[in-house]
Each structure stands twice: as structure tokens, then as C-alpha cells.
Amino acid sequence: MTAQFPVARPRRLRRTAPMRRMVAGTRLHPSELILPMFVKEGIGEPSPIGSMPGVFQHTRDSLRKAAHEAAEAGVGGLILFGIPQTKDARGSAGDDPAGIVQQAVADLVSDVGDTMVVMTDTCLDEFTDHGHCGILTPEGEVDNDATLERYAAVAVAQARAGSQVIAPSGMMDGQVAAIRAALDADGFEQVPILAYSVKYASALYGPFREAAECAPQFGDRSAYQQDPAGPVGEALREIRLDLQEGADAVMVKPAMLYLDILRQVRDLVDVPVAAYQVSGEYAMIEAAAANGWIDRNRAIMESLVAIRRAGADMILTYWATEVARNIWRR
Length: 330
Ligand code: PBG
Prior knowledge:
This protein is of the alpha/beta class.
């Protein structure tokens, strides 16, 4: 039956797949995906991470292979995390020129450094025996300014090894300024900083702490990472401060539970904005899918589209290689 008056029919544009594809407002491209990768010193075989099916702690060799696959799929960048054989209170392995991250970065830059962006996470938690992101005071608090010196040293070591983007994730005040100054003083004026500006103290980092073997041995990170219930203005302030300190791009982390923040950040700044779909976001979808409770591939794509739509220019995701392969075909 025909309506007696002109009925609005938005469904006309949804009827066929080509029609939906043509009018889609949010598209994903492999080049805006960034793959987080783990390399572990002193292992002979890649080691699967229980809480992140499909993700591995790599050997230097298996890391190279996985990076090649990512490059082949058109993934835009990778970000490297390293697990050293020995840890100490100051995280010495982090800026050791022979440290695992420095060695692996050199491999990756020579292998794929012309096709994708090779980035390093700059923090101390993977390298400290206490698992905190900085140097501790005798009372067991993280000492902000003592930590800045260590971050500067780690960033310079990573840049010397060839890292093409430095990504400080420790949430110390002044970390971007300290790292920028150290990079410039060492001749790395051209190396950009992607600042983890807005980073919440999230339950969703659980699986990562297994992957990077960096769970705090006491306490938690709430005294430096942001409170999920904290004022929204605090997130925007962190962004402004990082830009004043010289950040070239900013990040919001986690992604899915903070899409409101991501949108506000996107509207505030004119630099590229990244969002980190963290380990717990990955684990939740994989676990539900393994139980047959959700459609894995659709859930992955829906989550990435949502993050993109909220305003991310780049997305860090453990699914980067797989998704890059699939979206080429779409
Ligand atoms: C800290 C760091 C963490 C993640 C990235 N960088 C862990 C933390 O803050 O405890 C988490 C990433 C993820 O969960 O996927 N160096």
C-alpha cells in the first residue's frame, strides 16, 4: 500500500550492499592502523599470550616475520614493547644500547622501515623489577622528576637505534618536554613524539601486563594514570599541556570506553589523534567470540568503525594485520 503523503524513506539508501558502501561516512584504511608488538629477550620460540589468543611474545626472528606480514598487508605502523631478561629498580635495560628494544628496532627499521612507521613505546614498567612506570622514592611513590631523566635517556636510546616515533606512555608530568629536549640535544629534531596524553587507570590493561610482564608488584597506577571518573576537563588539559610541550600527535587510551573523550579531543586539536584499542578490548571480543556468543569479525569491525567515527585518525589495534588484509578486499 502506498502512503497518502510523502513518507520520509531513509531506508532507500540502505537496501543494497553497494548502496551502503557508497554512502558510508566512516571508512577504515590499513595505513591508519598501528600494530602493537612484543619482543622478549632470551626466548627460542615465540610464546603465546594466554589472555590474548593470536598475540605472541616474539623472538627477534619471529618479530621480523610478523612485521613483514603487517607491512605486506599495508598496516601503517607498528609500536614495539620489549621484555628484557633482567630487570632492576631503575629499568636499566630500557636505555641499554644493547637492550632488547634497541636491537629489535634496528632489525625492524632495516626490514620494514621504508614501508611502515616503526615506533617505540617509551616507559619504564617493562624494565623495572617493581613494575611501576618510574623511579620510586624510598616511600614507594613514583618520583616524577627523577623518572623524567630516565624517560629522556630511554627515548634517546630508542632514537639512536632508529625508532621513527617516540611514544611516551608513563603519564609523568612534563614527560613530553623532557623527551623533546633530550631528542633535540642529541640531534633527533626530526623524530616526532606521539604522546599518550590521555591515559586512564583502566582494568582493560590486564592482558597487556601478562604480555609485557609488567604488572606492578605492589599498589596500582592510579597515582599517575587518570581516574575514569575524573573531570573531563582534566583529559583536555593533559592534551593541551602535551601540545605546549611539543607533542606532534596525541593519543587517547583505552578507546572503546572513552569514545566521548576521543570526540572531545578530536574537536579540540589540529594534530593527528590516535586511539589505543587496548589488550582488554581485544580479549573481551576474542573471549566472547570463542564462546560463540558474538560474531567475532563483525564485532571487530564494528569496534574499529566506532573508534574511527568518534574521531581517531590512527588506531592502535592487535588486529591490525588481519583487519588490513580484510579491508583491502572490501
Ligand atoms: C605502559 C603501557 C601499558 C599499556 C601500553 N603501555 C600498560 C599499563 O599502563 O599498565 C597497555 C596496553 C594494552 O593494554 O594493550 N608502558
